[in-house]
Design brief:
The chain is of the alpha+beta class. The protein folds into 2 domains: 253 residues, Aminopeptidase (3-Layer(aba) Sandwich); 110 residues, 2-Layer Sandwich (Alpha-Beta Plaits). The chain is 33% helix and 26% strand. The chain has an 8-stranded mixed beta sheet with strand order 1-2-4-3-5-17-6-16, sandwiched between helices. Strands 8, 10, 12, 13 and 14 form a 5-stranded antiparallel beta sheet that branches. α3 crosses α10 and α5 packs antiparallel against α7. The longest helix has 22 residues. It is elongated, with a radius of gyration of 23 Å. The chain binds the ligand CC(=O)N[C@@H](CCC[C@H](N)C(=O)O)C(=O)O. The site of ligand L5K734KM has 12 residues, from β8.
C-alpha cells in the first residue's frame, strides 16, 4: 500500500478531541523521527508540534499549517480502518491534512528547500481553538518560528481530486459558538400547572432563534444560526427543570455578528418572561474570519493553473469557520479547498475522502512552496 495512504489510515483510527491529541502527537513525532534530521528542528507546544526545515539559501520563511483534532461523531463508514476511539472520528479530513503535512516534512527533510519552511501541527481546530494560543506562544516565546507567509488547505468533498479552489479576500466566516442554559421548575408529568417546563421553553426558543436570519439580518448580508444539539429533562414522566441548546453563529462581517447576538439576547429575555425561567448565554469560543491575502491567493491560483492535472477554481466564500483565520489576521497567506471527491459532506459520519487527494496535494504544495 502507498505510504501516504497507510499513514492516513493509521491516523484515521486514532481521532482525538481538541487539546487531547496525545496519541496523535506521539504518532506524528515518531513518524517525523524516521525522516532525515539534518535540516530539521522539532519543537512541541501543548499537543501540537512545530517543525522547522532550514533552507539552503533562504530569503524568507514559508509556513504550512495543518490541524490535528477529530470530532465527537460515531463513525458509520464501515471501513476496515474505521476509528478505534468510540464516539470520535476524523470527519473533517484532519487525518488527510496531517498526512499531507507529514509528506511535506519528509520531502523537505530529504531534498533541502531554498527557503526556510515551518510546518505547524495545530491542535483543537474544531474547538475550542488552537491557532490563537499557538500564535500567541510563537510571538512571545518563539518568534524565530514565525513565518513571513503562511498557507493551509481544507478538504472539499464536493470537488474532484485535483481541484484547488480559493479566492482573494474573505473565504470563511466569523464564527461564535453558542451555549444556552434554561432553568425552570421540574415536577410530575401529570401536574404541568405546578411546573415551568424547559422542554417547551427550549422548543419555542429554537423556533424564535430561526427568525433572526430571516427577519433581523440584512438580506444582503449572510448569516447562519444553527442549533446542533438540544438536551432537556431526565425521564418520560418528569417535566424538565433544565434544558440546554448548543449551536454556532456564522456571519461574514462583524456588524452582522453583533446584530445576531443582540437578537439572541432579546429573544432569550422574551422566553424568560413568557416561560418564567432563567436563561444564561455563553458564546464559547469565537473564530476570526479567514481572509486570504490578495497576492498570496492569486499566486496560489496562478501556480494551480500551471500545475499538471490541476483544476484551479476561483470559488465563493463559505460559512465554514477555521481558526487559521487568526494566522491570516497577522501573516499574509491563503487557505485553499482541496478536492476530495466524496459523497458525504464534512462532519458526516459516513464521509470517506478519495485518498488520491493525498499524493496530489502533497506534490502540489511541495512544488508550490519550492516556487516561492
Ligand atoms: C472547517 C470546519 O468545519 N470548521 C469548523 C470550525 C468550528 C468552529 C467552532 N467550534 C464553532 O462551531 O463555531 C466549522 O464548524 O465550520
Amino acid at each position: 500500500m502507498d505510504t501516504l495512504i497507510q499513514i492516513r489510515r493509521e491516523l484515521h483510527q486514532i481521532p482525538e478531541l481538541g487539546f487531547q491529541e496525545f496519541k496523535t502527537q506521539q504518532y506524528l513525532l515518531k513518524t517525523i523521527a524516521q525522516f532525515p534530521q539534518d535540516y530539521l528542528s522539532i519543537t512541541t507546544w501543548n499537543t501540537g508540534i512545530v517543525v522547522k526545515i532550514t533552507g539552503s539559501n533562504p530569503s524568507k520563511t514559508i509556513g504550512w499549517r495543518t490541524d490535528i483534532d477529530g470530532l465527537p461523531i460515531t463513525e458509520e463508514t464501515g471501513l476496515p480502518f474505521s476509528s478505534t476511539h468510540e464516539g470520535k472520528m476524523h470527519a473533517c479530513g484532519h487525518d488527510c491534512h496531517m498526512t499531507i503535512a507529514l509528506a511535506l516534512v519528509s520531502a523537505f527533510a530529504t531534498t533541502q528547500p531554498k527557503q526556510n519552511v515551518v510546518v505547524y501541527f495545530q491542535p483543537a481546530e474544531e474547538g475550542p481553538g488552537g491557532a490563537e494560543p499557538m500564535l500567541n506562544w510563537l510571538k512571545t516565546e518563539r518568534p524565530d518560528l514565525l513565518p513571513d507567509e503562511i498557507y493551509a488547505l481544507h478538504i472539499a468533498p464536493e470537488y474532484p481530486v485535483g481541484t484547488v479552489a480559493t479566492r482573494a479576500g474573505l473565504l470563511f466566516a466569523n464564527t461564535s459558538e453558542l451555549f444556552i442554559d434554561l432553568k425552570g421548575l421540574g415536577g410530575h408529568a401529570a401536574y404541568p400547572h405546578k411546573t415551568r417546563d424547559m422542554t417547551i421553553a427550549a422548543a419555542n426558543l429554537i423556533l424564535q432563534l430561526q427568525t433572526i436570519v430571516s427577519r433581523n439580518v440584512n438580506p444582503l448580508d449572510s448569516a447562519v444560526v444553527t442549533i446542533g444539539k438540544m438536551t432537556s429533562g431526565t425521564v418520560q414522566n418528569i417535566i424538565a427543570e433544565n434544558a440546554r441548546l448548543e449551536g454556532t453563529i456564522r456571519t461574514l462581517n462583524a456588524s452582522a455578528m453583533a446584530e445576531v447576538k443582540r437578537r439572541i439576547e432579546a429573544i432569550c429575555a422574551g422566553i424568560e418572561a413568557s416561560f418564567e425561567c432563567d436563561i444564561t448565554i455563553d458564546y464559547g469560543s469565537m473564530y476570526y474570519e479567514v481572509n486570504n491575502n490578495e497576492q498570496c491567493a492569486n499566486q496560489l491560483l496562478a501556480f494551480a493553473e500551471s500545475f499538471e492535472d490541476c483544476q484551479a477554481v476561483t470559488c465563493s466564500a463559505a460559512m465554514t469557520g477555521e481558526d487559521f483565520g487568526y494566522f491570516l489576521k497577522e501573516i499574509p497567506g491563503a487557505l485553499y479547498w482541496a478536492g476530495a471527491n466524496c459523497e458525504y459532506g464534512l462532519h458526516h459520519a459516513k464521509i470517506s475522502p478519495d485518498e488520491d487527494l493525498l499524493t496530489f496535494n502533497a506534490n502540489f504544495v511541495e512544488q508550490f512552496i519550492r516556487s516561492l
